[in-house]
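TICKET: design request
STATUS: open
ATTACHED STRUCTURE:
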C-alpha cells in the first residue's frame, strides 16, 4: 500500500483523493458522528459475532464461536466500550444446536478510560489478557465505524490518494472507485495503519476495505466486506460485516451482524 509523490501525477491523485475522501465522509454521516460525540450520547448495539475458527476466537474474550453481545459505545478518539454476553436468539439463527437456549455466564468486559476489564460472575478462573479485550473491542468498533473514524483522524484527508478503478471483488464487470488513506504518512510504519477503501461510483458508500492492523501484528493485513448499510441517527453503519484475510480471500475469519442499533443517553 504505497503511493507516489513529488510528480504531477501524484499531485493529481492527491487532488482526486481529497475529493473522494470528502464524498466518502459525507456519505458516512461524518457530521452526525461528530454531533453524537459532542452530545455525549452512547450507541447501543446488539450484535452477533460468528467466528469460523475456535483457535483464533480463543484470543478474544468471547466464550463461544457464535456469541451474541450487547454493546454500549461512547464514540470518540478514545472510546469507552461496555460489552455484555447475551443469551442466543433462536429467531436470528444464533442458536445452531436446535436446543432451547440457556443463559450464558454473566460475562462482562470493556474499555474504560483507555483500560480494559473483564468479569465473569460464575467462574473464578482468570479471564483473558487485558490486551486481548482491548484489541478485540477496538477492532470491532473500528470495523463498524471505519469511515467515520478515518474522517476524524488527523492527517487522513491529507494522505488521501486516488487509485485506479478496479473490478469489484466477486462482481465481474462492476468497477469501483478506490482511495488510499494512511493517517500520519504514506510510508509503512509500526505506529500507523493504511487503508484502501472501495466505493461504487454512484454513491461513495464504502463497500470493501483493505487494511493493516499493526496493533495485532506488524504485518497483519485483512479485508472488510460491508453489506446491508443502514442509517442510525444519521450515521451509516454496516449491519453485516465480513472480515477476511484479504480482498480476494473467500473464507471469513468472522462475521459481525447487527441485530439492533440506537443512540441514547448514558445510563
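STATUS: resolved
RESOLUTION: sequence designed for all positions
ATTACHED SEQUENCE:
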Amino acid at each position: 500500500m504505497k503511493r507516489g509523490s513529488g510528480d504531477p501525477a501524484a499531485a493529481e491523485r492527491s487532488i482526486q483523493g481529497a475529493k473522494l475522501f470528502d464524498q466518502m465522509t459525507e456519505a458516512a454521516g461524518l457530521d452526525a458522528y461528530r454531533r453524537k460525540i459532542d452530545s455525549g450520547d452512547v450507541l447501543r448495539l446488539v450484535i452477533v459475532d460468528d467466528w469460523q475458527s475456535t483457535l483464533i476466537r480463543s484470543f478474544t474474550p468471547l466464550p463461544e464461536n457464535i456469541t451474541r453481545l450487547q454493546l454500549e459505545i461512547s464514540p470518540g478518539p478514545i472510546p469507552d466500550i461496555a460489552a455484555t454476553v447475551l443469551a442466543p436468539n433462536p429467531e436470528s439463527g444464533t442458536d445452531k444446536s436446535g436446543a432451547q437456549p440457556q443463559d450464558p455466564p454473566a460475562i462482562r468486559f470493556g474499555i474504560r478510560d483507555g483500560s480494559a476489564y473483564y468479569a465473569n460472575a460464575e467462574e473464578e478462573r482468570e479471564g483473558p489478557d487485558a490486551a486481548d479485550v482491548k484489541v478485540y473491542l477496538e477492532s470491532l468498533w473500528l470495523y463498524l465505524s471505519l469511515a467515520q473514524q478515518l474522517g476524524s483522524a488527523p492527517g487522513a484527508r491529507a494522505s488521501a490518494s486516488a487509485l485506479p478503478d478496479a473490478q469489484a471483488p466477486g462482481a465481474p464487470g462492476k468497477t469501483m472507485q478506490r482511495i488510499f488513506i494512511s493517517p500520519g504518512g504514506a510510508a509503512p510504519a509500526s505506529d500507523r495503519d493504511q487503508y484502501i477503501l472501495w466505493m461504487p461510483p454512484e454513491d461513495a458508500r464504502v463497500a470493501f476495505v483493505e487494511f493493516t492492523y499493526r496493533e495485532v501484528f506488524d504485518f497483519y493485513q485483512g479485508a472488510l466486506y460491508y453489506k446491508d448499510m443502514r442509517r442510525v441517527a444519521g450515521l451509516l453503519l454496516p449491519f453485516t460485516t465480513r472480515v477476511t484475510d484479504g480482498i480476494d480471500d473467500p473464507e471469513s475469519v468472522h462475521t459481525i451482524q447487527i441485530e439492533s442499533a440506537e443512540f441514547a443517553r448514558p445510563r
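CLOSING REMARK: The longest helix spans residues 8-28. The mean pLDDT is 88.
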